[in-house]
Amino acid sequence: EAEEILEAALDDYPDNLMANCVNLALMNVRNGTLDGALDALTYGLDRGVWYGKYTFLDPVWEPMKEHAGWGRIEERIEEAKAIAAASVEPRLEVVLPQGYDPARRYPLFLALHGGGENVDLFMPNWKSPLLGQEFIVAYPQSTQLIAMDGYNWTEDIGLSLEEIRAAYDQVVSDYAVDTDQVIVGGFSSGGVASLEVVLKDALEVQGFVVLCPAQPEGLNPHEIEAASGRGVRGTLLTTEMDGRLDQQREMADIMREQGLPLEFHVFPDIGHWYPDDLAERLDAAIGHIRGDG
């Protein structure tokens, strides 16, 4: 029934063509009609949509990947992605605190979106009363395109650190930033990039707030010890059903062993996503970084 509904809707809902083609293909895979799944994906590609890095990771797609036509689907996705990536430009959104006065100096929070997201999706999830009242909040968007409307920070960490630095320099140039009060943080891929900022000392930051990050590749205890020596404090938030929970626990233990003041919290009954009380947790994390209490 879902297959029939989706097939009838393809022409009627052009704004949702990518999702409808993927879901139609999925229903065909579930029904064992792999040729129909191939047709659904091809239909979208023929009309200018393409499919992101994470679209086909679930094991349910494994039968499709054995189909003789799958290789051509992958080729067309890469061709479309390369064309789109060639025109990507850095993007930066800045939210000023209530009553912003350029004669004052304000703390800065660099907030980094998750993998496959963009700043439009991320900004409503990463906000809090304290950020709105006291902080200049900068939301840079990575140029590392992995979906039609989604970007990632961990395809090229070196490039990410350059882009984050450029965003920081732009904000400091344009707004009244207290450069002694800078915090970096983000979700998932953005959490990894935030940790890399700290570990590589790419910016002088007070601390970090990260949600559901992977463990940075080649995590180096000496870099953590050095960050601790610079006075960096941090909060690592994750969720009970996040697939990287064991890695995150290990990372928290290493950070604490190296003397870095870390708050570690696991949200129950939720997967790799934003918890409902994230705003409250962000404010608590900022308080921890500031040494309140």
In short:
This protein has 293 residues and is an alpha/beta fold. The chain has twelve helices and nine strands.
Description of the structure:
- Helices cover 44% and strands 18% of the residues.
- With 293 residues, the protein is an alpha/beta fold.
- The strands form two sheets. A seven-stranded mixed beta sheet has the order 1-3-2-6-7-8-9, sandwiched between helices.
- Helix 11 links the parallel strand 8 and strand 9.
- It is elongated and about 60 Å long.
- The model has no long low-confidence stretch (mean pLDDT 97).
* Biggest sheet descriptor: 7 strands, mixed
Query: How much strand?
Result: 15-25%
The radius of gyration computed from the alpha-carbon positions, rounded to a whole number of angstroms, is 21 Å
Q: What's the mean pLDDT score?
A: 97
What is the rounded distance between the termini? 58 Å
What are the segments in which pLDDT stays under 50 over at least 5 consecutive residues? none
- Give the topology string: H per helix, E per strand: HHHHHEEHHEEEHEHEHEHEH
Biggest sheet: strand arrangement: 1-3-2-6-7-8-9
Shape: elongated
Return the structural class: alpha/beta
Question: What order do the helices and strands come in, and which of them pair?
Answer:
Layout: H1 2-9, H2 17-30, H3 34-46, H4 62-65, H5 70-85, E1 91-95, E2 106-112, H6 119-122, H7 129-134, E3 136-141, E4 144-147, E5 150-152, H8 157-174, E6 177-187, H9 189-199, E7 207-211, H10 221-229, E8 233-239, H11 245-257, E9 262-267, H12 278-290
Parallel strand pairs: 2-3, 2-6, 6-7, 7-8, 8-9
Antiparallel strand pairs: 1-3, 4-5
Helix pairs in contact: 1-2, 2-3, 3-5
